[in-house]
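Ticket #4471: structure output looks truncated?

Reporter: J.K.
Steps to reproduce: submitted the chain below (370 residues) through the standard prediction queue, then opened the result file.
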Amino acid sequence: MSEVIDRPLLEEEKTATTRLRIVDCDVHPSLRSTDDLNEFLPKRWQQHLREYGSHLRTPYLFTTPYPRSSPLIARRDAWPPTGGVPGSDLAFMQKQHLDPLDVEFGILQVLDLFIFSQQNLEFGAAIQRAINDWQLAFWSHRDPRLKASILVGQDGVDLAIAEIERCAKIGEYIQINVSPRANEPLGRRRYWPIYERAQELDLPLGIHVGGYGGHPPTGGGWPSYYVEEHQSNAHTIAAQLASLVIEGVPERFPRLKIVFIEGGFGWIPSAVWRMDQHFERFRSEVPHLKRKPSEYVRENFWFTTQPIDEPDEARHLRALIEWVGIDRLLFSSDYPHWDFDDPRFAFKTPLTEAERRKIFSTNARAVYKF
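Returned output as attached by the reporter:
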């Protein structure tokens, strides 16, 4: 059992002045088994899943870029007593996470079956539709605190648009999710129809780390160690931020809200400083950009907090938060994964009550319109 779960809430942590009703922007539900999808999958694709499974854009089938010592990248204490895998038991999630931490809303981020990385785009579309329906039936309809996202594989743009339209008519989803590891950088025009529809529907675009783009996760090739690969999540998000900004996505879609999830935020200042510097020197190459990259970042992008880079000195974290912007940060726990951030202890630097309220609640409420 982890120290986090064994430790009960202290009385002072239960008072109105110190407890916040939290919006957790990164909660991972899991299939108990792929049979959970049968009622949402046509017979053809049920058979396909049983006989062929996933065909992903990776040379390492069934590997994940996380330590082997944490099966399913989960906390040891997150395995439900009723069986099943972490994140697959709603009652246990309520008891372990939603209720004791006073989570007002939790945004579901599904990683099962790597929808975004399926080579067979038709199979990927069938899976994304089934998982989008499963989120409502198994989670949101059983606990209204849990909000579903529209998962789409952006490399089949026409299929993605069809799924977005179908889910938008249902009207219960709060964002559109795509992967940061697609076939091409996310700023490419082939993906713009998705961004255009997201803006029209006023649905934020959520980009959660993970997936397989068919390329090494670092610019130098395949890493040797899991810890090295985990480090590359921040590099991936930084590269996609540059692609979206430099290719002109926020200039073309000024009302599009983009949320990077589970990429941290410690890398943002240097990435944006570099973009601004290069923009000044090479702006003739990108005349479609009317403003400095930092201006687009501060207007169109938000970042969830987990994993928080924690310098030794609290004032350095404080300076980082101030530079990124209190209004740009959305709290996320990454429950039930091994590097979960407990909201009671997540920020090892002083925050005012107003600042805490923004990061833990009101920023997300404004982005997602709760």
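Triage note (M.O.): checked the attachment and the full token line is present. The mean pLDDT is 91.
Status: closed, working as intended.
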